[in-house]
Design goal:
The chain is of the alpha/beta class. It has helices at 16-27, 47-54, 70-79, 99-109, 173-179, 191-201, 227-244, 247-270, 273-281, 284-300, 302-312, 320-329, 334-339; strands at 6-12, 34-41, 60-64, 85-89, 93-95, 113-122, 129-131, 134-136, 142-144, 168-172, 205-216. The strands form 2 sheets. Strands 1, 2, 3, 4, 5, 6, 7, 10 and 11 form a 9-stranded mixed β-sheet that branches. A two-stranded antiparallel ribbon has the order 8-9.
C-alpha cells in the first residue's frame, strides 16, 4: 500500500444520510494516498453500521457512547492519524474529485505554511460561496470571506487568508505537534477560529487554495439557526478574545460587541440577517436570553481561560503590531456580520 499522506477526519452525529454523499466523493478523489477516520459521536441512526456495510474501505472508526463534541472528535481522530497532513471534513459535504490533490500540491509547495483553506460552495446552490477562508471582527466573531456572493471567480487567486473553515481544511501535522490540538472546552463552533489564531500566533500561515472545492449542506447536522449554535458561538468567541487578543483589544472588544448587538437588534426587528431569521423562528426574547447565558457561562470559566492565556503565551512568536495588522486586513465589516445571512 502507498504511504498515507493525508488523514481525513470526519466527525459524525446522526449523519447516516449525509455520509453517503460525503464518503462517495472521497472514493472518487484523484489523490489516493489518504485514509479516512470517522469519529461517531453516539449516533442513533445506524451511521456506523451503514459505513461498515457500504464503505468497508473506511478502516478507522471511533465510536463514542455520546456526543463528545466536534473539538474532541477532531482530537480523537488526530491522535490515531497516520498522515503527514490532517484534513477536516464535515459529514454534510461533497468534495470535488481534485479536492485533496489541490490541497496536497499547495502544502508540498509551501512547507512553512500550516493551514490550507478550501473553496466551499453551497451544495444546493453551487454558484454561491459559503467560504473562501475566514474573516474576523474585533470581538472575536468570524464569518466566511465572500459568503453568500455569487461565485464569479472573484476569489480565485491563491493568497494568504486568516484561517480556514473547519468544514473543509488541511492542516500540517507538524503544526499540531507544535501548538497542540483543539480546545475541547469549546465543544463545537469557534474551534477553527481558536486553532487558526493559535497557529497564527505561533508563526504558521494560512493559504487559500481556490482549486480545492467542496460543496456544503450548511449546518445540516446541527441546524442553521439552532439555540445551541447561537449559545456556543457567542460563548466561545468571548473565550477566544480572552485567550489570544492583546490586552488593548480585550478592553475594546465590548464596545465592538455593543455596536454589533445594536445592529443585530435592528436585524431581529426588521427580520434581516441571522438574528432576524432566529427571531422569526423563535423570539427576540429567547435570543437575548441565550446571549446572556453565554456571557454568564463564559465569565464562570474566566479563571480557567486566564490560565490558558498564560500557558499559550509561551507559543507566541509574533508581535502585537502583527496581530493589529491581521485585524486590519482580515477584518469583516459589522454591517455584513449583523445584517447578512
Amino acid at each position: 500500500m502507498d504511504e498515507i499522506a493525508v488523514s481525513v477526519i470526519i466527525p459524525n452525529l446522526n449523519g447516516r444520510e449525509l455520509l453517503k454523499d460525503c464518503l462517495a466523493s472521497l472514493e472518487k478523489q484523484e489523490f489516493k494516498q489518504f485514509e479516512v477516520i470517522v469519529v461517531d459521536n453516539g449516533s442513533e441512526d445506524g451511521s456506523v453500521a451503514f459505513i461498515k456495510e457500504h464503505f468497508p474501505w473506511v478502516k478507522k472508526i471511533i465510536q463514542n457512547p455520546s456526543n463528545y463534541g466536534f473539538a474532541m472528535a477532531c482530537n480523537q481522530g488526530i491522535e490515531i492519524a497516520s498522515g503527514r497532513f490532517i484534513a477536516l471534513l464535515n459529514n454534510d459535504t461533497e468534495a470535488h474529485p481534485s479536492w485533496l490533490a489541490e490541497l496536497v500540491k499547495a502544502a508540498e509547495s509551501n512547507p512553512r505554511i500550516g493551514m490550507f483553506a478550501s473553496k466551499t460552495l453551497f451544495y444546493d446552490r453551487p454558484d454561491v460561496i459559503d467560504t473562501t477562508g475566514h474573516l474576523i471582527y474585533p470581538d472575536g466573531l468570524n464569518r466566511g470571506r465572500g459568503r453568500m456572493e455569487v461565485d464569479r471567480g472573484q476569489y480565485d487567486d491563491r493568497l494568504d487568508v486568516f484561517f480556514p473553515s473547519g468544514c473543509a481544511a488541511l492542516y500540517r501535522k507538524d503544526m499540531f505537534d507544535d501548538i497542540g490540538l483543539f480546545d475541547e472546552a469549546h465543544f463545537a463552533y469557534g474551534d477553527d477560529t481558536d486553532i487558526g489564531i493559535r497557529g497564527r500566533l505561533a508563526g504558521w500561515g494560512c493559504l487559500f487554495v481556490p482549486g480545492a472545492i467542496v460543496y456544503h449542506k450548511y449546518s445540516a447536522t446541527t441546524g442553521e439557526y439552532s439555540p445551541q449554535k447561537v449559545y456556543l458561538v457567542e460563548r466561545n468567541r468571548i473565550w477566544i478574545v480572552w485567550k489570544y487578543f492583546p490586552f488593548k483589544m480585550v478592553v475594546l472588544s465590548p464596545f465592538y460587541s455593543l455596536l454589533r448587538y445594536l445592529l443585530q437588534a435592528y436585524a431581529a426587528i426588521s427580520k434581516k440577517g441571522a438574528a432576524g431569521r432566529f427571531a422569526s423562528r423563535y423570539s427576540t426574547f429567547r435570543l437575548v436570553a441565550i446571549v446572556m447565558k453565554a456571557y454568564i457561562d463564559a465569565f464562570l470559566a474566566l479563571p480557567h481561560v486566564l490560565e490558558e492565556r498564560k500557558r499559550l503565551k509561551k507559543l507566541k512568536r509574533v508581535s502585537n503590531e502583527e496581530i493589529y495588522r491581521w485585524f486590519r486586513i482580515y477584518r469583516i465589516p459589522v454591517t455584513e456580520l449583523a445584517l447578512k445571512l
